[in-house]
Amino acid sequence: MVGLVVTVERVSLAKITQIYEGTNQVQRIVMARQLLKGLA
After folding, report:
1. HEC string of the chain?
2. What confidence score (pLDDT) does residue 27 get?
3. CA dist 20 to 11, 12, 40, Å?
4. Cα dihedral sign for 19, 21, 22, 23?
5. pLDDT tens-place string over residues 1-40
6. What's the rounded Cα separation, in Å, for the pair 29 and 13?
7. pTM, to two decimals
8. How many Cα atoms are found within 13 Å in the side-chain-facing hemisphere of 27?
9. How far is 30 from 40, CA to CA, in rounded Å?
10. Any idea of the CA torsion for 19, 23, 24, 28, to the nearest 10 degrees?
11. I need a labelling partner for 15 at 20 to 30 A (CA). Which of 24, 33, 37, 38 fits?
12. CA distances (Å), origin 29, targets 3, 18, 19, 21, 25
């Protein structure tokens, strides 16, 4: 039972990390677009 809990925690942490990295990528794209608009 303890092993199952640890596995679930690992999966959720991996998911959270994945979502966080995805958010960072979106923010970078948005910032890049704004910078390009400013330069154009």
Report:
1. CHHHHHHHHHHHHHHHHHHHHHHHHHHHHHHHHHHHHHHC
2. 95
3. 14, 12, 30
4. positive
5. 667 776 777 878 888 889 989 999 999 999 999 999 998 6
6. 24
7. 0.56
8. 6
9. 15
10. 150
11. 33
12. 39, 17, 15, 13, 6
CA distance 27 to 4: 35
Read off the amino acid at residue 11: V
Structural tokens at position 18? 């994945």
Please give the single-letter amino acid code of residue 15.
Answer: K
